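In this section we walk through a basic example: taking a raw amino acid sequence and producing a predicted 3D structure, encoded as discrete structure tokens. The instruction is simple. Fold the sequence below.
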Amino acid sequence: MTNIKMYGTPTCKDCVIAKQVFQDLGTNYEFIDISYSQEATEKAIELNNGVRRIPVILFDDKSILVEPTAEELKAKMALQ
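The resulting token sequence is shown next.
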């Protein structure tokens, strides 16, 4: 079972796209809404080397994708 964490917000366009990719692929993931959590916001920024961009997606292998396109995310998921 995968342990994917996605930091984002419900209204972020790129977050919605990533959620749709996960849904289409039947992927389980944990969505961490940074809208109401300063701690989650800080973690997302930390994972992205101090840059504030979302979604930040953390994979089992500790690799990270930030603002991936649907194609980039699908390619990464094919390797999981």
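Looking at the output, two observations stand out. The first strand starts at residue 4 and ends at 8. Residues 9 and 35 are 6 Å apart (CA to CA). In the next section we compare this with other chains.
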